[in-house]
Amino acid sequence: MQHATFQLRLFALVLLVSVSFAGAAGEISHASAQSDIQGPFVGEPVYPAVVNIDLRNLPQAGPTSKNGAHPALSIPLRGPSASSEELTPAADPVAETQPALPNMPSPLQSFAGLDYSTWGSGWPPDTNGDVGPTYYIQTVNTSIGIFTKATGSLVAAFTFDNFFTGTGTPCDANNNGDPVVLYDPLADRWIITDFAWTDTQNGPYYECVAISQTGNPVTGGWYMYGLRADDVSHPWLNDYPKLGVWPDGYYMSANMFDCLNSSCSSATFQGVRVWALNRSSILNGGPLNEVHFDTPYASLLPSNLRGTPPPAGSPRWPTTRPAKPLRPPSSTTTGGASWRSPP
Description:
With about 350 residues, the protein is mainly beta.
């Protein structure tokens, strides 16, 4: 845990420098976010439920009810309304001017994934997925599908409520969406997450984390954790959770909202919480140890490893949207970061 803690402290230092430059440029802080980065906070260890089951033996059926639209939690713009000058991005002196590759290669396989009528419940569907050597795993807001990469055939599909078990938290029966699935190429393991709670307005709110015991997600078994994402002093819903694989840890972020009514259709944005999870421990079924910070940023996306690992000790860089918009408020932007070895 020491190495992951150091990396997240370095990450916090980078954010602090960024905040300082933003302040010098005249940014006005978001009224409902923290004025500074808070932490580090060390969470209580979370012990896993060890689940050894062939996932094809779970009920191969989708949700029995459809919940309609999910509440749209929005992040207000920071500072005053942007002027026309502010809508023009500054030149980046180190930006690439030529594409790294001439063309995107054609897909190796194309096949239908999980459909709404059988596996979905509400919208947006929160589609997500990742690919490993043998399998492709897709998640939507209620369900998980495991496909054979070579043929696209569906091997197993089931709901999150049927998948998670034994954690003693709302993860076991009250999963609510925003799933993420990642393949860890360094360990040949799979990570599947979503969030869960029973009281939308008051929490507590959990991030459900499943780590495969082997590279076989179907029959190899899983370690399942119910990580409380909020705390007594900050009873906030962990919306838009994102994860990244890095050699020294798993990193996670979430936009934190204070829900003001029973559906959270009215909520106050409270900034982003970022976590470092002890990768080596949970890969071996040990306790999930974590350290986290609370930041005044919005939608921080962890970097995610692809291909050759970065040089030893490389920090795990996040990306985020700017404090003031570079596009008109009616447009949207999204982004992420992945490490790839140079060609």
